[in-house]
Design a protein that fits this description.
The protein contains one helix and six strands; from the N terminus they run βαβββββ. The longest helix has 14 residues. The two termini are 17 Å apart.
Length: 65
């Protein structure tokens, strides 16, 4: 997991990682101005901004437990 100050920074990293590592990356807002990139197996607590696979966003925002 890595933390970023803006959603666009986190989304850009997620696009790059999901394309180069051929894996799924989740971007979520962990409160305030903290946006986190994580793998689906990591614990996610906050608003999911996007889910990325192969460099593309496959799912939009929704609340996670």
């Amino acid at each position: 997991m890595n933390t970023y100050q803006t959603a666009s920074q986190a989304s850009g990293v997620a696009r790059t990682l999901s394309r180069s590592a051929a894996c799924t990356i989740v971007v979520y807002q962990a409160g305030g101005n903290r946006f986190v990139t994580a793998r689906p197996s990591d614990a996610v607590s906050g608003l999911v901004i996007g889910i990325y696979q192969n460099g593309y966003q496959v799912q939009g925002a929704r609340r996670a437990g």
